[in-house]
Design brief:
The protein has 178 residues and is α/β, with parallel strands linked by helices. The protein has a single domain, classed as Metallo-dependent phosphatases (Purple Acid Phosphatase, chain A, domain 2, 4-Layer Sandwich), CATH 3.60.21.10. It is 29% helix and 19% strand. The protein has 5 helices and 8 strands; from the N terminus they run E-H-H-E-H-E-E-E-E-E-E-H-H. Strands 3-2-1-8 form a 4-stranded mixed β-sheet. The protein is elongated. The N and C termini lie far apart (45 Å). The mean pLDDT is 94.
Amino acid sequence: MYWFTADEHYGHENILRYLKRPFRDVEDMSDQLINNHNSLVGKGDCVIHAGDFCWYKAQYAKSIIGRLNGTHIFLKGSHDWWLKGSDLSRWSKQIGDHYVTADHYAGLSWPRSHHNAWQVFGHSHGALTPQAKQYDVGVDNNNFFPISFNQLIEIMAGKPDNPAYTILQERKKKDELR
């Protein structure tokens, strides 16, 4: 099973004030995020973290990772200084019939968007309106839980097609009429 999340901001005390997160302190936030994560994610599951996982250094990040179920892929966000030497900022994969791209930042176009592929992103903490087949997987947008691939299937089913896909389909219909 694949899971998607972003913007946990482990160890980032100021995020509590900036976003009015409902936790007593940074330790309470970390404990609740870890409990929420582990209540859903199994040991054999894969979690894509779309940036801003941890505010502190690698040793602190590793201590948090050690408490989380699953295997993890970390995309570099705007606060991930602990990911020294990594420039992985995008992850793409076909899962079943669906092609998914994860980025820290939302985009107007992404790999295979003209084929109606999905983009999941973070960074905006629920303040950006997704376009077409996009979804903000950040914890602030999802009651501080990760989002499963199965949840994404349901979410994306209710969204309109990507603009590039719609244009491509219209062009194909015109060509067929000729």
